[in-house]
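To whoever is on call:

I kicked off a structure prediction for a single chain this morning and the downstream step that reads the tokens threw a length-mismatch warning. I double-checked the sequence; it's 82 residues and nothing unusual in it as far as I can see. Pasting both halves so you can look.
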Amino acid sequence: MKDLTTSQARRPFQRRRKTCPFSGENAPKIDYKDVRLLSRYVSERGKIVPSRITAVSAKKQRELARAIKRARFIGLMPYAVQ
């Protein structure tokens, strides 16, 4: 019997792709004044979480990053956590 390498072995299940939380009818709008929404996409260290982790689409990730940076500049969000 042949030994199957990891590339040849079948995976037990297919991982489902997450959908973007900002696309769809009832999706929240990205606004720099909505600090509660924006803080969900910032790590404990104050860094913007990448889209591969949050499953946000590329276009919405750019909007999200722009809104977070705008909120930081105005003073609604901190740049770094102390």
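Update from on-call: the warning came from a stale cache, not from the record. Cleared it. Sanity check on the structure: The chain is about 30% helix and 0% strand.
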